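hey so u asked for the seq, here:
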Amino acid sequence: MGITAAAGAANRMRFLEFAEHFNAVMPEPQLVETLVQQGLTLSATAGGELERSCWMVVHEHHHGVKPTEYDIREIDEELYLAVLEAARAAV
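ran it, structure tokens below
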């Protein structure tokens, strides 16, 4: 393998490693719809706080419990954004 071919192979590997971050798996549509319905229901009883309600249902799905007042545990951001977008579209 010549120097040019080796450099090309190295560049390809760097690109593939970089591109992995953009190939995120999209959340399952049925899960998103279920969480959207839960978020809309919670939002209706929480004074219309859609963003907070969606975050809370995704948190509960991810961790198995409702969040506490100062809960800083991470959630699946891709799932949260999918739920929030679908909930906004449904309103």
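The CA atoms of residues 14 and 39 lie 40 Å apart. Residues 27-90 form one domain.
lmk if thats what u needed
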